[in-house]
Amino acid sequence: MKTYVKALVVGGGAVGTSIAYHLAKAGWDDVMLLERDELTSGSTWHAAGLLPLFNMSFATTHIHQYSVEFYKTLEAETGLNAGFAVVGNLRMAQTQARMDEYMLYASTAETCGVPYEFLTPDQIKERWPLIRTEDLKGALYHNTDGYINPADVTMAMAKGARQRGVMIERKWQADAFHWTGEAWEVTATKMVEKGGNLVPSDEQVVITAEHVVTASGNHAQRTAKMLGIKMPAIPVEHQFIVMEQDPALVEFRKDHPEHPVIRDADAQSYVREERGGWILGVYEKNAPARFEYGVPDSFRADLFQLDLERIEEQYMAMIHRIPSCEDSGLKDDFNGPICYTPDGNPLVGPAPGMQNMWLAEGFSFGITAAGGTGYYLAQMMVEGEAEIDMASLDPKRYGDWMTTEFATRKNEECYDHVYILHHPDEERPACRPLRTAPAYDRQKALGAQFGFVNGWERPNYYAPEGFNDHDSRSFRRGGWWQYAVEEAKAIREGVGLVDATAFTKHVVKGPGATAFLDWFTCNKLPAVGRINLTYALTDHGTTRTEYTIVRLGQDEYYLVSAGAWTAYDADFLRKAAAEKAGDFGYIEIQDVTTQWGVFAIAGPKSRDVLNEIVKDADPASALSNKRFPWLTMRNIELGMCPVRAIRVAYTGELGWELHHPIEMQNYLWDQLMSAGEKHGLKLVGARAQNWLRQEKSYRAFGTELGRDATPLEADLPRFVDLNKDFNGKAAMQAKGIRSKCVTLLIDGPEDADPWGREALYHGDTRVGRLTSGGYSVAFEKSIGMGYVSPEVATPGTRLKVRMLDQLWDAEIVEDSPYDPKNEVIRKDG
Ligand SMILES: Cc1cc2nc3c(=O)[nH]c(=O)nc-3n(C[C@H](O)[C@H](O)[C@H](O)COP(=O)(O)OP(=O)(O)OC[C@H]3O[C@@H](n4cnc5c(N)ncnc54)[C@H](O)[C@@H]3O)c2cc1C
Q: Are 450 and 459 in contact (CB under 8 A)?
C-alpha cells in the first residue's frame, strides 16, 4: 500500500468514487481512495437511483446536469453498463399554486439549459392512461431525466478511476488526521469481520497526503469529530417500497415505452417502474434522524425496519393516482439512512480553518449529485476554483453556533419539507427563534415577521396583529407585499428603520493590516474616518466577498460584509492573512459580529430623527454634510449610547448605519422609536430594503456578486483600482467580460414580480438570467437585476423575461435608475 499520495479520498460511495475519478481525470496521478468496508456499502447501495436533473438552486442544477451527461459516457469508457434509463420525469400538480411553482422551476431550468414541457391533464392521460388525472391541474415534464442503478454507476466510476491510476483500498478506515504544516498524515486502520460486525484490527498505516477529501456519508459526525469541526450532516430515515407486478402496467408496456418517474409532490411521493411493478418512494412526516452521534459498528450495509404506518397516507394516495396498482402486493421494502443538511444542500468545499482538507458530505441526492460534485470539486482542488459558484454548497455556511440538536431537528424538517410548496418567500419554522438580537422582543411586539439568516432572526417586514406569514406566501405577490410597499415608500418619502444586526463584522488591525488589505481587496483603501466599498477576489479574479471597509485608524479597519456568510468570510480572511503574515507583518483578525448591533435609519427625514437625540456641542451641525459627509464614519453619541455611525444607506436614501454595542441595543431602539414618532418613523424589513437597493442597482452578495463573475463583469469598475496590484487582478483582467450585470424595469404580470431566477431573452435568443427581482415603488413596476451577454448589455435594450410561463417586456436601464446622481443620499441639512 502506498503511503504518500497527492490526494486521499475517504469514502467509497457514489460521491467519493466520483471525486477520485475526477481528480485523476483532472491530471492528478497519485490519488488513493480508502473505504472502510466495500464500495457502495453506505447509503449508495440502497438508493432508488432517480436522477432529478432540475433543482431550484442554480449551482445544484449544474451539478445534476453534469452527472446526467457524464453517466451516459461511462459505459463507453469502462465497458460497464450503469443501467441508465432515460425515461423522463413528470412533476404533477394538484393545485394552481403547484403549477405556479413549476413555472418558476421551468424558468430556472431554462437558465441552465434543461429542457422541459408543460402538459395538460388530457395530455398526461393520453400518454399515460394508467395515471388518474381528473384532479390534476397539469404537469411539468423533463424528458432528459431518468434513473440509474446506483451501485452499477459507482462501480463504473471506480473502474474508470482505476483505469486512470487511482488506488482503491477497501477495508481501511481513516481514523485520525494530522496536519504537519505541509501535508496531512492520515492514520488508517485495517478493518476486519467479527461476528458479522466490521471492527478495527491492530494493523495501522499512516498515509501522507497533500490533500484529503472526506466523503464519509452517514459517518459524517465521526469525521467531523476527528477533524475537530462541526458539520450539520445527519441522516434521516427514508423509505421506499417495491410492489409486485401490476397486470395493467405489464399490458401497457407491451406496446409503450416505460413510464417517466412520476412525482406527485402534493402527495409527497415519487413512483417509477420496476420489472412490471411500481416503486413508491415517499417523503413522509415524522421520519426520525439517525446516527446523531455516529454510526454503530453493528450497522453496515443495513436497513431499518419498514414503518408502513408512517407512509400509509402516501400509499393510499398512490392507489388513488394509479388505481391499477391497488391489488399489487408488497415485494420488497427499503428504509435506509439518507444524509441531510438543514437546507438540503450538501457540504462541498474547503473545511473551515484547515488547509488542503476538503469536505463532500451531507448528500440527500448523492447519486444524482455524485458526478457533478466530483467534477466541480476536482476543479476547485486542482485549479483553485470551480467554473460555477459553489458558495451555496460551502461547508462554512453554518457557523460555530450550529449544534447537533439544531442539525438533527432541521434535517428532519428538511426531509419533511421535500415536497412542500417551495415558495421563494418561504421561512421554515424549526429551531426558531435561536439567535436573537436584544430588540427581537420589541420588534415582535410591533408585528415583525422574521426571516432566518445564518441562524439570526431578522425582520422581513412588519404586519398588523393576527397576520399569518405562512398563509401569505405565494409564487406571485404574497399577502405581505402591500406591507413591503408601504415600508419602501416610507424610506423614499419619510424615514424608516431597518435592523441590520446580522451583518458580518471583522476588525483587522496590526502592523501588517494596511499592506494586507491593500493586497486582499481591489479598491483603494479609505483614509482614516472614511469608508469604501470593495471586493476581495478569488485567485481566479471573481468576487469572493464584498466589504464595506471603515478605516478606524492608520492600521485598524472595520470590515462589514453580508450577514449570511460570517463563517465563510471569516475563514477566507483568516486563511489569507495567515498566508500573507510573512510578507506583510503581523495581522490581527477579530470576528466582532455578535458584539455590534446595527440599525440602518434612512429616508429624507432620517437626519431630523437623529438630530433629536444626538449629543454634541453643536447638535444642529453634528450630522451636516460639513461635519459628517457621505461615505464617512463618525463616533457619535445618541442619548447615552456610543455609536459608530457610518453615512451610507443600502436603500440609496439619506441615511446612516448605526453600529452600536449590542448590550445597548434596546436602549438605542427606544431612543430612536421615541425620537422618530413625531417624524413618522416606520419600521422596515429586509424585503422592502431588497427592492430599494435594486432601484439603486446596488449588487447583493450571493445574487449579483459571487465566484462566477468578476467585479468588472458585475459592472463595478468604479470600485476596482487598476493602478494597484491586488489578489486576483491579472486573472480578473484575463477573464474579460463574459457577461455583464444590468438592471431592468419590467412590465410583468399584474399580480407577480420576478424572484431573481428567471430567464432573459433578446428576440428568440436566451441572453441571460435574473439574479434578483422585486417591485419598484419609485417606478411602480417590477424591477430586476441580472446577467446578460455583453452585446445586449446597453441601456435602452429591450428584452423579455420569462415569468409564469410567458414572456414579458423588460428594458435595460442606466445603473441606479433612482437618483442616478446620488443627490438625495448627499442631501445636506
Ligand atoms: C431509501 C433511499 C433512497 C434513495 N434514493 C435516491 C435517489 O433516488 N437518488 C439519489 O440521488 N439519491 C438517493 N438516495 C440518497 C443516496 O443514497 C445518497 O445521497 C448517496 O448514496 C450518498 O453517497 P455518499 O457517497 O455521499 O455516501 P455513502 O454511500 O454512504 O458512502 C460513504 C462511504 O464512506 C465510507 N466511510 C465512512 N467513513 C469512513 C472512514 N473513516 N474511512 C473509510 N471509509 C469511510 C462508508 O463506509 C461508505 O461506504 C436515497 C437514499 C435512501 C436511503
A: yes
pLDDT for 108 equals 83
* Per-residue pLDDT tens over the stretch 5-29: 999 999 999 999 999 999 999 999 9
Its pTM surpasses 0.85: yes
In the prediction, which pLDDT does 55 show?
A: 67
Sign of CA dihedral 206, 209, 212, 215: negative
Q: Is 531 exposed, middle or buried (0-12, 13-18, 19+ CB in 10 A)?
A: buried
The span from the CA of 249 to the CA of 273, in Å, is 9
Cβ 378 vs Cβ 16: under 8 Å: no
- Backbone phi, then psi, for 167, in 5-degree steps? -95, 125
Q: Which pLDDT does position 53 carry in this prediction?
A: 75
Nearest alpha carbon, ligand 1 atom 48: 42
Ligand 1 pocket test, pick from 41, 338, 393 with the greatest ligand atom count within 8 Å of Cβ, gives 338
C-alpha cell at 610: 437623529
Cell of 800: 423579455
CA of 44 to the centre of ligand 1 (A): 4
Whether 427 shows a pLDDT value over 70: the answer reads yes
Residue 50 has what DSSP assignment? E
Which residues does residue 390 pair with via DSSP β-bridges, in sequence order? none
3-state secondary structure 285-327: CCCCECCCCCCCCCCCCCCCCCCCHHHHHHHHHHHHHCHHHCC
**Could you read off the pLDDT of 264-284 as tens digits, one per residue?**
999 999 999 999 999 999 999
pLDDT single digits (tens) 705-738: 999 999 999 999 999 999 999 999 999 999 999 9
Atom of ligand 1 nearest to the CA of 237: 53
CB atoms < 10 A from the CB of 464, how many? 7
What number of other Cβ atoms are within 10 A of residue 530's Cβ?
16
Write the pLDDT tens digit of every residue in 284-325: 999 999 999 999 988 888 899 999 999 999 999 999 999 999
Q: How many degrees, rounded to 5, is the angle at CA 411 between CA 408 and CA 412?
A: 85
Q: Which atom of ligand 1 is nearest to the CA of 363?
A: 19
Write down the pLDDT at residue 197.
87
The DSSP output letter for 466 is T
Distance, in Å, from the CA atom of 177 to the CA atom of 356, rounded to the nearest integer, reads 12
Whether residue 95 has pLDDT greater than 90 = yes
Separation between Cα atoms, residue 164 and residue 23, nearest integer Å: 10
Q: What lines the ligand 1 site, CB under 6 Å?
A: 10-16, 34-37, 41-44, 46-50, 173-174, 215-219, 238, 240, 334, 336-339, 363-368
